[in-house]
Amino acid sequence: MAGSSVSVDYADAMITTPIAAGDWLIVAPSLITMLGGALCLMLRKHTDLQPKLGITLLGVLVLASFALLVRVLDHGVITMVMGNWLPPFGIAVTADTLGATLTFIGSVVAFCAGVFGMKTVSNSGRRYGFYPFLLLLMTGVCGSFLTADIFNLYVWFEVLLISSYGLLILGNDRIQLDGAVKYGVLNLVGTNLFLIATGLLYGIFGTLNMADIAIKVAELENPASGTLATVAALYFLAFAMKAAAFPVNFWLPASYHTPNIVVSAVFAGLLTKVGVYALIRIFVLILPASLGYMADIFGLVAIVTLMTGALGALAQTEIRRLLGYLVIAGIGSMLAGVAVASNSEVATLAISGAIFYAVHSIIVMTALYMSAGIMNMMGGSYNLRKLGGLYQKSIAFAGVFLILAFAVSGLPPFSGFWPKIMLVDAAFKDDRFWLGAAILVSGFLTTLAMGRIWIFAFWRGGPEGTPDGKSVEVSGSSQSDLASGAIWLPLGILTALVVYFGIQPEWMIELSTQGASSVVDPLGYIRSVFGEQG
Amino acid sequence: METGVTVLISLFFMVAVYLMLSKQLVRILLGIAILGNAVNMLIFTNGRLTREIPPLIPAHLYTPETATANPLPQALVLTAIVISFSFFAFLLVLAFRAYQELGTDEVNKMRVAEPENDQTPPQGY
């Protein structure tokens, strides 16, 4: 610069071309939620203002992430490097179809939860920061989906985790403290494992940029070598813990039924899927060779997770705990997709099945937890033995529940059907018949578990002991809330999405296929990070 | 030099895992604190240890003259220290509150969320 005797060509170190205005959208999801969360935190004593502000910000988030998705579909993968340093030195934020799709669906779910929380979160819950925590949770979720730097991914995981702690203990009940201890300790150990693996990976390659690591791994002579195998095993354990795969799933059923129902709904929708997303990103994009020799372990874990989830769900009396196990069963299906992705011929099909399943699971699990909340409002309990006669109370709600029950079991014509077809198809093409069979059997057992809720909570006349043919009026826990649109609107939006993705799956299949090919064939991703010469 | 530190790190990991396998919540938390330190040292060592050559660039140059100590792991460790410290503080308070409410710090006896002898679901349809 002026006064300097050495002339420097900044183009060697920095990106000098101006950033296209539309590319700024890529930082919008994190920025909106982070600044919005800070604003909400400052205004946390204004309990009337909290829902308005929080829901508005979440609405803006939905719009921004939709605009980002449209931009990615129009322009391909987009990258922004922080400080304009040339990658791999600057921290890159990259949106491909996979990240943008999950960001969009996650934002929709968070918006619905924000609206639902208007009724279920009390004034003291608002004062203790429900909306700031929800917004900051979304900062972590969106950041994880969009970052292209592996240490940055760790930081977003921690942002997500600390906000989830805040949400989990909102209310400070005995049962919540018990659940939070297990959730807190095990998740912290999981992120520490992630950090160990990242440290080792940095030691091997000297870089943290995912695209850069992918290039360097591809250049290795022996990508299945010992050190890299350690890293791969640690990543698998860490993300399996985050995703609640067997045998590191125990924190989920211990904690997901303890917080406020809307918090459970958000957790069930988003948190475990971030773990699955990280598994896909790390193993398919960065360590495909490791996935090759670990595929059987992935497949085995997937089968056992599917069975644990489905059988665990059958053994529960408490609806929320039953749904917690169904979250685990869904994780098994997605893991099955990752396992099959080791075969490069069916990798795109398998990963697109896993992505579609993740989208389906985000929507349907949130909606199911919300309906569990409504069942409690109508029937006064979460216990299958004490519920009954809800069909008489609201036929429309019974219909919505039946749609969700079909969807989560993978029955047509709802959103769970298509990803299951893709996953089973991919598993059979890869000659992994056991894996395909496990997905189908788990779907069947899920149907039984959901059918049980339908029969006991909706179909029979009243709680346990009511004679056949008689009907008993059950009293709900908060009947007055049931008249509010804030309860029905979010459930309606999510159910509409379930039906839409079931009847018109082309759009989502297209999105997930594009998302899958951006990780299976990472050239576009790498080019976007490094510029065209990469 | 890395070898010596590696032995130390593995000792840290051993202690951390041993403590985390305990039934007492306080010991588990101490294990987590030590685990955090072990991870930090691991990242630090993975950046290769170079002594007494600070990453400073002389005023008339734009790049350092010789290989210097790697500053990046220090930045990473700093981030990780802040995060693990805040998490540890949170978990300590959480454990104390749990001890107040549940009257025990033994994890096997913390069965409020998942009671023993839980009701089975209704049999038959």
Automatic annotation (TrEMBL), chain A:
Transmembrane parts of this sequence: 24-43, 55-73, 85-116, 128-147, 153-171, 183-205, 225-249, 261-287, 293-315, 322-342, 354-374, 395-414, 434-459, 480-503
Coiled coil: none
Species of origin: Roseibium album
Entry membrane topology: Multi-pass membrane protein
Name this protein carries in UniProt: Multiple resistance and pH homeostasis protein D
Residue intervals of the NADH:quinone oxidoreductase/Mrp antiporter transmembrane domain: 149-446
GO biological process: ATP synthesis coupled electron transport
Pfam family, one: Proton_antipo_M
From TrEMBL, chain B:
Location in the cell: Cell membrane
Keyword hit for Transmembrane: yes
TM region positions: 6-21, 28-45, 75-96
GO cellular component: plasma membrane
Keywords: Cell membrane, Membrane, Transmembrane, Transmembrane helix
Classification via InterPro entries: CPA3_antiporter_subunitC, NUOK/Mnh_C1-like
Topological type in the membrane: Multi-pass membrane protein
Domain of life: Bacteria
NCBIfam families per the UniProt record, alphabetical: PRK12658.1 (NF009301)
Annotated family: Belongs to the CPA3 antiporters (TC 2.A.63) subunit C family.
Protein name (Swiss-Prot/TrEMBL): Multiple resistance and pH homeostasis protein C
Organism: Roseibium album
Organismal lineage: Bacteria, Pseudomonadati, Pseudomonadota, Alphaproteobacteria, Hyphomicrobiales
Gene behind this protein: mrpC
